[in-house]
């Protein structure tokens, strides 16, 4: 069944695809598209606390951190409406689905609102599509009905593999497909976001992450179909053109 769905979607893409370019309102509140992100290996507690302070100040959609910092994020965001996003199986995605499921369940029990999981790219490239499906489905099952975003690592995939990854993510119950970890030598592109949105349609949303540093780049991603932007440059994006320079880490 999954193979037949993939073949149908690849064919549909080849026959019907045209680049997506949505008209955006002039008063777009871009802050509500941003997952304010800190995932680097040398992130310190003070940096995470600052991330949360910035998210509250600029009213970003969420902060995105590794699961080990979730308790600190809970304390730092207490009383605010900022959501808490964590990454699962990050950044390589090559641990077992049981481990990904446990990490997701733990984070769900400890207050996470959204889960950005990394697929096993090697299994995808080897054509082990049922295994990739089961991997994603395990995280979806473990997420307490909350939002799961699937990082497909576009820079490592061929065009057809991107289509396949999006189809599998959609069929496994993901809420979003996401471009990149930012750790594999490439990031979000307008072309990839457009392709991903075409494939998933209204069944999923698209998150563009990796290398989105300016307001112009963020708006281009949103126009191409992104509903969320993952970036550590959120302050620059929302304050670009402002007389004030807010700095940042």
Automatic annotation (TrEMBL):
EC number from the UniProt entry: 4.1.2.4
GO biological process per UniProt: 2-deoxyribose 1-phosphate catabolic process; carbohydrate catabolic process; deoxyribonucleotide catabolic process
Pathway given in the UniProt record: Carbohydrate degradation; 2-deoxy-D-ribose 1-phosphate degradation; D-glyceraldehyde 3-phosphate and acetaldehyde from 2-deoxy-alpha-D-ribose 1-phosphate: step 2/2
NCBIfam families given in the database record: deoC (TIGR00126)
Protein known as: Deoxyribose-phosphate aldolase
GO terms assigned for molecular function: deoxyribose-phosphate aldolase activity
PANTHER family linked to this entry: DEOXYRIBOSE-PHOSPHATE ALDOLASE
Gene: deoC
Compartment(s): Cytoplasm
């Amino acid at each position: 069944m999954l193979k037949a769905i993939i073949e149908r979607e690849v064919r549909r893409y080849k026959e019907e695809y045209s680049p997506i370019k949505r008209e955006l309102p002039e008063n777009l509140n871009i802050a509500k598209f941003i997952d304010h992100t800190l995932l680097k290996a040398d992130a310190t507690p003070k940096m995470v606390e600052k991330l949360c302070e910035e998210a509250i100040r600029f009213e970003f959609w969420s902060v995105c951190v590794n699961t080990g910092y979730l308790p600190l994020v809970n304390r730092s965001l207490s009383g605010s409406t900022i959501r808490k996003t964590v990454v699962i199986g990050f950044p390589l995605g090559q641990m077992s689905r049981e481990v990904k499921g446990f990490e997701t369940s733990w984070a769900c029990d400890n207050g996470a609102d959204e889960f950005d999981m990394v697929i096993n790219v090697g299994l995808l490239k080897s054509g082990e599509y049922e295994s990739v499906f089961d991997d994603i489905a395990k995280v979806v099952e473990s997420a307490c009905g909350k939002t799961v975003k699937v990082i497909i690592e576009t820079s490592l995939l061929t065009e057809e593999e991107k289509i396949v990854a999006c189809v599998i993510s959609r069929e496994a119950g993901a809420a979003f497909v996401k471009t990149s970890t930012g750790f594999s030598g490439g990031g979000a592109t307008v072309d990839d976001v457009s392709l991903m949105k075409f494939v998933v349609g209204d069944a999923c949303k698209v998150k563009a992450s990796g290398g989105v540093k300016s307001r112009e780049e963020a708006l281009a991603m949103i126009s191409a179909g992104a509903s969320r932007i993952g970036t550590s440059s959120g302050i620059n994006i929302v304050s670009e053109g402002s007389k004030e320079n807010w700095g940042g880490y």
